[in-house]
Each structure stands twice: as structure tokens, then as C-alpha cells.
Design goal:
Shape: flat
Structural class: mainly alpha
Strand order of the largest sheet: 1-2
Largest sheet: 2 strands, antiparallel
Oligomer: single chain
Order of helices and strands: EEHH
């Protein structure tokens, strides 16, 4: 995982028995609840509790998984 100012990179493995859109919705929902719980001051800007954007970008990883892992790590190194 790598967190940028305006977006996040997250590389995870989702077994075929799960629907990817439901997994993403779950992660966005649970993370928003935790963020609002820790940062109460955000409630005045996000009063409807819509913290994340509605959409997401998804790409499947096959043979290039190693390259994508390197990319996410490199972005993290550059941002530190």
C-alpha cells in the first residue's frame, strides 16, 4: 500500500469467490469509519460521511505482478 496526497495504491489478492467491487466497497467503508473515528474534525467537511470518491481504478495483475509491486514500493520511497 502507498498513500499519496490525492490517491492511494493498494495491491491485494482477491480470491475468485469474492466480487471485487464488494471488496473495494468494504475497504472504503471500513477505512472511512476508522478515519472519521480518529479525526472528528473531518465531520464538518464531510458531514454526509462520503470520504472516498465514488469510483475506483482496477487493474488485474498477472505476469507483471513483480513489476507492479516494485512500482508501488518506488512511489513510497519517492514520497518519503
Amino acid at each position: 500500500m502507498n498513500i499519496q496526497e490525492d490517491h492511494d495504491h493498494l495491491l491485494l489478492s482477491v480470491p475468485p469467490k469474492f466480487v471485487v467491487s464488494e471488496v473495494v466497497g468494504f475497504l472504503k467503508g471500513k477505512s472511512a469509519i476508522k478515519i472519521f473515528g480518529k479525526h472528528l474534525e473531518l465531520k464538518k467537511w464531510y458531514w454526509v460521511r462520503h470520504f472516498w470518491a465514488k469510483g475506483y481504478c482496477l487493474s488485474t495483475v498477472g505476469l507483471d505482478q513483480k513489476r507492479i509491486r516494485q512500482y508501488v514500493r518506488k512511489i513510497e520511497e519517492l514520497s518519503n
